[in-house]
């Protein structure tokens, strides 16, 4: 069966006016206009990752997105970003139609965005926040499990467990995130109650990703167990093991205080590792699914493979 027909009437495709219920995560240092436009042009929903962009840089990427695609696209905004008001004003001024928010309460900015006619999705890591999302007026929920790369919730709930819990708590369109890297994963997420998926690591390691080539090559060599959740005293983050990761682990083993960990972390670690390619001293944020990714492919091949795998898996049932 044609993949488009498989997703006919899907709540996610209808909400965002896209062909496939596949959203590209708005990842820091990876999700520039080249990646986001490629995903949108291939039938998914591309997101600019505003979390690693100064306001003027975000505006520049928005302008380039408008030139690169006529398909729907959006912006991911971590709500803890220090220049959040500037980012939100730029999003409104530039006529962005879709915003995914994360790392904060949906109540603060959702009404503002909705008043401007913007479709809003919010990322959560536990089912308790589903009701808050509904009360805030969000249009869709992303439930992100423990397998995901980068910053996560403290509950350490896996995607397999999280999706049914969130589905029980809400009827809003639901996207599964964390450990999604194949068409089989998409079908499994749907079987658990999700309407679609948000994919991070697979797109972070694509040719169009703005991440440094050295980071991509290091990540595709990752094996099972090469990523770990750490820095739980500050903000839990999943990292590839490297020199910096081992420094953190040793500091924590010796009982480092929160202030000592903050000093060790410093500033710009994620940029240093993922964008500048410092594989020793940088933070290398990637999900567990990196162990399954063995090639750096262009987005059109990634999307084609996801759909072929999905179709084949669906045919077995």
**Second-tier CATH architecture of the largest domain:** Alpha-Beta Barrel
What would CATH call the homologous superfamily of the largest domain? Answer: Aldolase class I
Sheet with the most strands?
8 strands, parallel
- Provide the spatial order of strands within the biggest beta sheet: 1-9-8-6-5-4-3-2
CA radius of gyration is: 18 Å
List the domain count as a whole number. Answer: 2
Order of helices and strands: HHEHEHEHEHEHEEHEHEHHEEHHHH
In which range does the helix fraction lie?
Answer: 40-55%
Q: List low-pLDDT spans.
A: none
CATH C-level class of the largest domain is Alpha Beta
The amount of beta strand, in percent, is: 5-15%
Q: Averaging pLDDT over every residue, what do you get?
A: 95
Shape: globular
User: How many β-strands, per DSSP?
Assistant: 11
CATH topology of the largest domain: TIM Barrel
Number of helices: 15
* Coarse structural class: alpha/beta
How many angstroms separate the termini?
A: 13 Å
